[in-house]
Amino acid sequence: MSVAGLRRAVRESVSGLPREFWWLWTSTLVNRLGAFVATFMALYLTLDRGYSASYAGLVAALHGLGGVISSLGAGVMTDRLGRRPTLLVAQTATALSVALLGFMRDPVAIAAVAFLVGMASNASRPAVQAMMADIVRPEDRIRAFSLNYWAINLGFAISSAGAGFIAEYSYLAGFLIEAGMTLVCAVLVFVKLPESRPGSEDSPDASAGSGAVSLLTVLRDGRYMGVVGLSFLVALVFQQGYLGLPVAMGEAGFTPADFGMAIAVNGVLIVVLQIPVTRFIEHRDPGRLLVISSLLAGYGFGLTAFAGSVGVIALTVCVWTLAEIVNAPTQTGLVVRLSPVHGRGRYQGMYTMSWAVASLVAPLMSGFVIDHWGAEWLWGMCAVVGTVAGLGYGLLMRRLPEEALPQKERTAVVVEKAAEVGAS
């Protein structure tokens, strides 16, 4: 591709999105740039504090449990109080709890505060996704979610590299820097982002009113809950890249550096390919994309059973990373498409919970399977789970309903159709 063509592709990828989206995107990037604690938490507990690996696993599980519990509550807050207040509360609470965690010394206190950090940090996700759906036009949402996912991975790649250097200097500095950068995100939200909840005064669609949507409404939505269940299965598979893969490589005689080289392929490919791949898929059938990405994820991990070198393992990482690049924006866009406008927070909360539960179940699953049957069985199970998820998406996505348009867009469509009828 020529330089002019590359410039045109970049311009088309980022054009047409509202200013509010870019402030939200910047907040996401800043948040992930400061995500040091998740990277070095296990090392901090085992090497710096001298606790056992079992205790470090317990703290990680409590952190994940906090995220599971807060997902639904944050979804309700997002719909009732608004996107902006939920983001402010979640990010401020995250900053305070992360800073507090750095000063904890008692093992019970560390575990309790880690639980609070998990609750606070996960609470912002339904609000971010709901706000993004509010402010971005339906035809641009896949692109917007993809750009947001790209920011998450770019920030995480940079913070992961920086976390090691910060940890060598001071673990406490890492806690305090993350707390400070999270507060910066809260300030950005407070200063630059108006409330976008439909029916609110500052909303782009203030005339929409409020609808009666409860958590029971979400649970009774059979198609949507099917998507949530399939999302859980796909998340179980993707989690193995950070849980089952390092354990299996260690048992096979590979070094931590070998794992680092292999998994680095994941971050590099996402940063390089996320935007061009999204340009290719954004107007294609989401059901078909989710079927393909589920199969690629399952069989990408399944192929790991036959990988005997770092190079071959890196190739398998390429396969399931491509699945991740396709799945992430497509799945998030589908969640919005199936969500009623006034229930986006609750629906996003349920979707977020599927990933939070997967982060709890995945380490237990990978450890049990590897200990009792070996890593080959784990990779075979990933292939089976990916196949089941792909078949499930194929069945659920038949006769996918048209996406609900905001009031203003519905009015424009009605006027346009009326004009067509009058002219005929």
> What's the main sheet like?
none
Shape: globular
Sketch the topology as an H/E string, one letter per element: HHHHHHHHHHHHHHHHH
Low-pLDDT sequence parts = 205-210, 404-424
How many individual domains? 2
Pfam families: MFS_1
Protein name: MDR family MFS transporter
Membrane topology: Multi-pass membrane protein
InterPro entries: MFS (IPR011701), MFS_dom (IPR020846), MFS_trans_sf (IPR036259), MFS_Transporters (IPR050171)
Descriptive report:
This protein has 424 residues and is mostly helical. The protein is built from 17 helices and no strands. The longest helix is centred in the N-terminal third of the chain and has 29 residues, at 107-135. It is globular and about 55 Å long. The model is unreliable at 205-210 and 404-424 (pLDDT under 50).
Brief characterization of the structure:
The protein has 17 helices and no strands. The protein has 424 residues and is an all-alpha fold. It is globular and about 55 Å long.
Could you outline the blueprint of secondary structure elements for this entry?
Blueprint: H1 3-14, H2 19-33, H3 37-48, H4 53-80, H5 83-103, H6 107-135, H7 141-169, H8 171-192, H9 215-220, H10 222-239, H11 244-251, H12 256-281, H13 286-302, H14 310-338, H15 344-372, H16 375-396, H17 407-423
Helix pairs in contact: 2-7, 2-8, 3-4, 3-7, 3-8, 4-5, 4-6, 4-15, 5-6, 5-8, 6-15, 7-8, 7-12, 7-14, 10-14, 10-15, 10-16, 12-14, 13-14, 13-16, 15-16
